[in-house]
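REQUEST ID: PR-0412
SUBMITTED BY: lab tech R.K.
PRIORITY: routine
TASK: structure prediction, single protein chain
INPUT:
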Amino acid sequence: MKQIKYLMTAFAAVCLIAGFASCEKEKEVEKIVEKEVVKTDTIKVPDDNNWSRYQTMVTNNVKEHKQHSKVILLVAFGSTWQQAFNAFDTTIDAYKKAFKDYDVFLSYSSAICINRAAAGENVADGAEIRNYYAPPFWLNAFADKAVRYSEIVVQSLQVIPGEEYTRVINYIKDFANNSNGDLDDTYLAGVTLKLGVPLLQDAEADVNLVAQELNKLYADKAAQGVVAFMGHGNPDSYDTYKANVRYTELEQALQAYSKNYYVGTVDMMENFKTNVYERMKANGITSGKVYCHPLMSIDGDHGHNDMAGDDDDNWEDGVGFTPNEEGEVEDTSWKMYFQHLGFECNDETMIPLGLLELPSVRQVWMNHTQNAIDGEPLDYYHSKNPE
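STATUS: complete
OUTPUT:
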């Protein structure tokens, strides 16, 4: 069952990727993967099945660009927006500069993002067509007999140690345990495997450091009005490791600097934008500016739409908003929600930057990578749970 689950998960992550249907697409493939620093003129793409083709693409990519004996694999949830692609490119460059003895690659953990980025979902808005691959392809490539890195560091680019971080843990556990049975057990027994934790892994050190860096960046905005950070969060049934509490802890840490800082989410129960507004009212804030900022690694679909979009279908003149049973106002962006409530909240008060675009915050992830490198190899037969 474990093998079947692994194969189904990995296959779902790639089976819909566009642009690789036949050898006739070879020139298109070369253009698509250019931003992934893959030169396809030396790559032979087999025609048997998607899994083999994508594994061949990734393995040949790694073979061609291998310069060191050690490697860092950055794992992001993913996005289809050009701004996010640029943020990932900048992050890869920053890692290569900081970790000179390591090769650096980046993968997506979201099958939907993989498929839609390859299909060019946001081409009309200026986005390129990009091909990102799921972590198993990269890990398998690292173990290829022509590659075989001596040390593999997997760095989670998640914000909280929740549901998506669990997926990252499972990818590397399946790899270490050779769950598909097609890797060299002798190599796996000798390779050093390490895992870098999410941004807000530690309830004190990480939360306080990120709060400090955000305040350095936005203290001037907090002096003018509310600065509302929009995280993702998980529904209660998916709140792995109870990681949603990090948003509450971050708001508390930020409010030690100013009561104008708030942290809400799009998916955490009792921490929607409606709950942020209730906390604002409790602090006597009923008017003024509201700056909105994504609390996600990149400014992607949630930032463009849920935060800064023009959707306000829930609003009805003379009636107002109609919250759902969970208390959230659906079909209304944060911008339009606060605007309808009388706040100065518009395109000018949106701060369209993902956390990876903030060098001082990105450095916290990089610190986690360095800590993983400096620490002892981990036991991947057990999950690495947050404390």
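NOTES: The radius of gyration is 22 Å.
REVIEWED BY: pending
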